[in-house]
């Protein structure tokens, strides 16, 4: 059945009409929004508590929230959805065959502030904030810097914000851009080492002087500084335990955190789903974090014809999650936990799921077990019962789902002007990246896995990178356009972790003298690529004359072609 938003106009309240249209949705229905500009806040939103993304345990208010429904379509008919304040646009749980298409997302007040760097000295900087959407004020007593919306009652606390510098023309992060949390009160609760404490003096309307306390950060006069909300509470789209998701013809001009989160799902497709700066807005930022963030998802992922530009983090991150063995209850039952604060209240495993046990030092698979039951013990622990005997599992060994590793196909996408990286793809199964363009990034393709810092896996097994272009994709001296490096493994002595990697027919331009870095891998083919040796960036100490590094790798077939 077609549900037309216009059919609810009798309610004389556009926000209530939208809420009623969504609540009337049943299996097989299509909601038509009818185009135009639709303003949405959390007045009639559905409150839910999900702990992903990040560490926020506050309620999230979903404007569009569907649970336990199948065969549902939401068609914007060209609508522009403008969200206001503390609201999550879309949330889906335990749904099948979901289609979203034909609309744009923006926020009345973006969840970041953007300022012009009027002065950058050795121990302070003066920032004039853009007052188009908000006015900024500093409270000396609480040491809180806050942005007050000009169009609503929304207030954004920017006392601990992820901060980056952008050029004014073109609108992109600067080379060797500082990467830190600007804090006016106390260090960031999770990213403590990235915190830079500053004293604040309000010099005039939206004009502030930030004086460095302990660390000093070099900025450039005449550029922009962007500070994004650190909580990352409200993603534009959040799919939990859903199956067969399809998104098409969607532009994201802004987000409060991630663009799209896909968690514990199966089969995801996106076509012409874009993170782009809102036209004529003067903004430097589109999405506040990753555009696509896909976790413990199985089946097939297909993303094509998508633009992922001007993000505060990565364009695409596909990974599994590790849990850490803490206690053995009996011969078939373990207690595992999450040591990273952002992983909270997550029941990762389901009945019948196969789980690999990984050695805590080498990340090599020791055995595979089958889950009988998994249940939460508090916010950070799971009690997991298996069908088989546990055997010689040791404390601090890792568990990782053997099933939640999708095949991935990424085609004809564009990633650039991001603070972070392009594609992070430790998917565990066949991954094909072709006909994509990467530019002005810390790295174009990054496959790490084995990360104890973020508890993220897993090993690459079957990566194909072909017919892509990489330009200015080594922004820092430790970066590479393609970087395949397990994070928590000593690459000098460890056995191969990644395997079956083919990098062919790609073009590398303006990346200094470093192009490809591969560590702890086997069965590597690097052929028919073209490179230039622009000296804009110096070579990395580990890179040989060809700009390609294979450290502790086996079965290597490399044939550089330098232009």
Explain briefly what this protein structure is:
With 563 residues, the chain is mostly beta strands. Helices cover 2% and strands 48% of the residues.
Task: Please explain how this structure is put together.
This protein has 563 residues and is an all-beta fold. It has 1 helix and 49 strands. The strands form 6 sheets. Strands 1, 2, 3, 6, 8, 20, 22, 24, 33, 36, 40, 43, 46 and 49 form a 14-stranded parallel β-sheet that branches. Strand 11 and strand 12 (144-149) form a beta hairpin. The termini are far apart.
Fill in the keyword field for this structure.
single chain, 563 residues, mainly beta, 14-stranded parallel sheet, 13-stranded mixed sheet, 1 helix, 49 strands
**Portion in helices:** under 10%
Mean pLDDT: 91
- Helix count? 1
Rg over CA atoms, rounded to whole Å, is 24 Å
Oligomeric state: single chain
The secondary-structure class comes to mainly beta
Strand content: over 45%
Low-confidence stretches: 539-543
Cα-to-Cα separation, first versus last residue: 59 Å
Query: How many individual β-strands?
Result: 49
What secondary-structure arrangement, pairings included, does this model have?
Blueprint: E1 2-4, H1 14-23, E2 30-32, E3 37-40, E4 46-48, E5 60-67, E6 70-83, E7 88-93, E8 96-107, E9 112-120, E10 124-129, E11 134-139, E12 144-149, E13 155-157, E14 160-166, E15 180-183, E16 195-204, E17 207-212, E18 224-228, E19 237-240, E20 243-252, E21 260-263, E22 266-275, E23 292-295, E24 298-304, E25 307-309, E26 316-321, E27 323-330, E28 333-337, E29 354-358, E30 365-377, E31 381-386, E32 398-401, E33 407-411, E34 414-416, E35 423-424, E36 431-434, E37 437-439, E38 445-447, E39 456-457, E40 461-466, E41 469-471, E42 482-484, E43 498-504, E44 507-509, E45 516-519, E46 521-527, E47 530-531, E48 548-551, E49 554-559
Parallel strand pairs: 1-2, 2-6, 3-6, 5-7, 6-8, 7-19, 8-20, 15-16, 19-21, 20-22, 21-23, 22-24, 23-26, 24-33, 25-34, 26-35, 33-36, 34-37, 35-38, 36-40, 37-41, 38-42, 40-43, 41-44, 42-45, 43-46, 44-47, 45-48, 46-49
Antiparallel strand pairs: 4-5, 9-10, 9-18, 10-17, 11-12, 12-13, 14-15, 14-18, 16-17, 26-39, 27-28, 27-32, 28-31, 29-30, 29-32, 30-31
